[in-house]
Amino acid sequence: MKRRFSRRYLEEKFFQALMGLSLLLVTGSLAGILLTVVIKGAPALTLDMITKTPQGGYYLGKEGGILNAIVGSLYLAGGGTILALIVSIPTVLGLNVYARGTRWADLVRLSLDLMWGTPSIVYGAFGFTLMLALGLKASLLAGIIVLGLLELPIMARAVDELIRMIPEELEESSFALGANRFETALFVILRQILPGLATAILLAFGRGIGDAASVLFTAGYTDRIPDSLMAPAASLPLAVFFQLNTPFPEVQQRAYAAALILTVIVLLTSLGSRWLAGRLGRYTIR
Amino acid sequence: MTNKLLLMPRASRPREVQFPSRRIIDRAGGHAFMMTTAFPLLIVILMIVALLVRTRPILESKPIGDLLLGQTWHPLRGEFGFYPFIIGTLWITLAAMLLAVPPCLLSAVFLAEYARPVIGAIMKPLLDLLAGIPSVVYGVWGLVAIVPWVQTIAAPASQQWLDFLPFFAVNNTTGYSILAGAIVLAVMVAPVIISVTYEVMQAVPDGLRESSLAVGATRWQTIKHVVVPKAAPGILIGIVLGFSRAFGETMAVLMVVGNVPRVPSSIFDPAYPLTALIANNYGEMLSIPLYDSALMGAALVLLMVVLIFNLASALLLQHILRRSQT
Amino acid sequence: METHISIRNLNAHYQDQQALKNISLDIPKNQITVIIGPSGCGKTTLLKSMNRFLDLVSGTQISGDVLIDDESIYAPSVDVTEVRKKVGLLLQRPFPLPMSIYDNVAYGLRIHSMHTRGHSLDTAVQHYLEMAGLWDEVKDRLHAPAARLSVGQQQRLCLARGLAVEPEILLGDEPTSALDPLSALNIEKRLMALKEQYTIVLVTHILRQAKRLADYAVFMYLGEMVEHGPAQQVLENPQQERTRAYLEGEF
Q1: Residue B219's pLDDT is what?
Q2: Which residues of chain A are within 8 Å of residue B307 when distances are taken between CB atoms?
């Protein structure tokens, strides 16, 4: 059997090598990002960074931390996630239980796809327009609303996927007992997707907390921890961005530390969602 | 103890205590759910209308052709040409996709077809993890790693060997360039594209692969002729998702592309994408007439592109699916 | 013989295909009626017309009527959830709900607020698990996820869950087809015991099962009801050529 030098054998080897290289390139770059953030950020990461708000002269390299941005980001993303959840769960249940297979459902799904593809800076601009119309100033509330809009399609599409994977017989089992659609949606469908829902919620939270462009003009930036919904709120991505733009190396160092903190929060969220999904998956029917 | 009710003759059992409220709740719940489903559509319409209203002042004072094709951006003189920004966005996004798609598809093929299942099982959650890294972090990486690399290695190398090629001329020595932006974006969308592609390739039934291998095809031939065509619609979705993300990205790009409002002619030139234009200028200098309206116009252009792009890809997908069914 | 379900001139169409052709049939009370026929003959459609499950398939058109206890279940004033409460259904594969064993049985009781009528939920759950022959196997782990039960146990759980809403009729759509022979036999035994109190309608493609269980038999072919009558007669001494051909394994 002639094998070694046939054309298709060479083609196979060539593409195998190319694939190996590609994977190496991609994973290498991604690892490079994590390494960069850790190497650059770790030296400037002190306890003060995560326990103090900026003190006088902080932006010239003096004392303080970015607790304002950490708390602000958690508030913003947390609020946005709750808002997105409140809208996306009924929307998706409506699409799958009451409007299944209708043209309306197709239209709504298309709108969700459009929202998903809409750049976050457009949400920022739209949010600012809305604020002007409502007479709001840059505030925690405005930031939460804009992040809610940004997170809505992420969560809704993920949950929609989950519900579409449920075997039809599971819903039928509930109908066969005389349950109506509302009861089936609430007690069976929601229960079945609970683990996936936890993942979707935390996925949306992660996207929300990492987004800078949408909160740029809507949430503002302040050195104080926000004490009301109407107060402006700082955020971690903007803390990175603003500090990086200062001319002082000490402050730039802190930008790297802020980036590290942000990355750690996002990674923890992601790991947490996996853990939670495992815990909630006990009752799921496969 | 048994259920006494069962032992009674059926006719004499008490009639079920009926809760008409159950039916009312079902109806009301259904109406409430259906009303919320209108929300996404309303938001899309509201966004378009709001941006249109805010853009109107500039649309009324300047012809739309001048805005979209105007070359100069000089708000103080009342010149608002979007052309350099639109072209900048296009260059960066396309360059990023050119850089990202081939290695991502190859990586996904490797994970789905060649690597042991364990590796795929480890890589998938890892990729999802990486897909969640905030864009600002990608920007930081671009700033400390990619911009200097372009400045000290890529640009000089290109100047020496590739200068004669049309898009590789080096007229800029800062490193802040389309290339830097494209690299950052390419790495940023990689987890999305790989993860989606890997998933759809895994969903291709093994029977198909086996029937191709059984007639003596090599694995690569099987992939090329059987697996990839079968997975094509899903792969397309992955690329579309990646493109959407790259196109709308603001912060990561803004930090590395240089933000010079000039039509670029080489990947080593700086550029100024629409997203960065809005982010850098909004909220400042709003006293300049029409400035604010022009920036809203930029947002409207972005939204329209997303709209057209999504509709086109939905139609394309429908077309592919219909053809593959028959 | 008392009639429990009465089907009158029932026709069903899926899009352009006629699944049931003018079926009229009386199903006797407190007996096991078995519907047999080759796959695609409309036997499942006929079964699902009796608890209005055809409503769930969009594009289905139904004419004719189904009466239970002389009341039409397709009348506009009828609450479909009440019909389904009165008519239990076992599916081909068991589908426990995504909750604990206990909550599966309690689900229907809670939905219909039946436990508020003076007897405790615990008692009722135990009672129905006993009726389904599952109590002894699960009494120590009532709050474990139902998904952890074996397939055979899951089907008996589905039976207990169905019994708990106190139906009068039990429908079974090949309820043993996903089970191992022993579990299947166990379900058959349960059904035999239950016919004292319930009217049971089963779809099956296993002839020997039909012979073991049936009091009354119906043979369907291509959407038509070819023959029906006491099981002895239809299964042992069919009058119709097509029935005989099917029983002799010609389809």
Answers
A1: 85
A2: 114
Q: How many pairs of residues across B and C have Cβ atoms under 8 Å apart?
A: 25
Per-residue pLDDT tens for A89-138?
A: 999 999 999 988 889 999 999 999 999 999 999 999 999 989 888 888 88
Q: Do A191 and C95 touch (CB under 8 A)?
A: no
Closest-CA distance, A277 to chain C, in angstroms, reads 14
A154-157 long-range contacts, CB within 8 A, separation 24+: A154/A84, A154/A116, A154/A200, A154/A203, A154/A204, A154/A207, A155/A81, A155/A84, A155/A85, A155/A88, A155/A200, A155/A201, A155/A203, A155/A204, A156/A84, A156/A87, A156/A88, A156/A91, A156/A92, A156/A112, A156/B40, A157/A112, A157/A113, A157/A116
C197 and B6 in contact by Cβ < 8 A?
Answer: yes
The C-alpha atoms of residue A184 and residue A197 are separated, in whole angstroms, by 17
**In this model, does residue B161 exceed pLDDT 90?**
no
Give the span between the Cα atoms of B300 and B19, in whole angstroms. Answer: 52
Report yes or no on A46 lying in a domain.
no
Rounded to a whole number of angstroms, the distance from the CA of A286 to the nearest CA of chain C is 8
pTM of the model: 0.87
Q: Judge whether A255 lies within some domain.
A: yes
- Closest Cα in chain C, distance from residue B26 (Å): 11
Domain housing A187: 70-283
Structure tokens belonging to residue A81: 């996630």
Q: What is the pLDDT along chain C (251 residues), one digit of tens a residue?
A: 789 999 999 999 988 888 999 999 999 999 999 999 988 888 999 999 999 998 888 788 899 999 999 999 998 888 888 899 999 999 999 999 999 999 999 998 888 888 765 568 888 999 999 999 999 999 999 999 999 999 999 999 999 999 998 999 999 999 999 899 999 999 999 999 999 899 999 999 889 999 999 999 999 999 999 999 999 999 999 999 999 999 888 76
User: Looking at the complex, does the CB of residue B304 fall below 8 Å from at least one CB of chain A?
Assistant: no
Indicate the angle between helix axes C151-164 and A168-176, nearest 10 degrees.
30
| Paired sense of beta strands C17-28 and C3-14, if any | antiparallel
Window 150-189 of B, Cβ < 8 Å to A? 187
Predicted confidence at residue C32, as pLDDT, reads 95
- Contacts of C among chains (3+ CB pairs under 8 A): A, B
Contact with chain A for residue B87, Cβ under 8 A: no
Is residue A21 situated within a structural domain?
A: no
Question: What is the percent of chain A where pLDDT is above 70?
Answer: 98
- Mutate which: C2, C70, C113, vs B, most B CBs within 10 A: C113
- The span from the CA of C61 to the CA of B10, in Å, is 33
Interface test with A, best of C48, C99, C157 (most A CBs within 10 A): C99
Which among A101, A178, A192 is the nearest to C84, CB-wise? A178
Tell me which of A16, A33, A268 to substitute to probe the interface with B (most B C-beta atoms closer than 10 Å).
Answer: A33
Of A113, A125, A180, which has the smallest distance from its Cβ to B278's Cβ?
A125
How many Å apart are CA A19 and CA A12, to the nearest integer?
11
CATH number at residue A245: 1.10.3720.10
A111 touches chain B (CB under 8 A): yes
**Backbone φ/ψ region at A160: left (φ over 0), alpha (ψ -120 to 50), beta:** alpha
Number of domains making up chain A: 1
- Report yes or no: C82 at the A interface, CB cutoff 8 Å: yes
> Under an 8 A CB cutoff, do B40 and A111 touch?
yes
What 3-state class would DSSP assign to A148? helix
* Tokens found for residue B179: 């290339």
Q: Encode burial over A109-145: b for 16+ CB neighbours within 10 A, e otherwise.
A: bbbbbbbbbbbbbbbbbbbbbbbeeeebebbbbbbbb
Query: Are the C-beta atoms of C235 and C219 separated by less than 8 Å?
Result: no
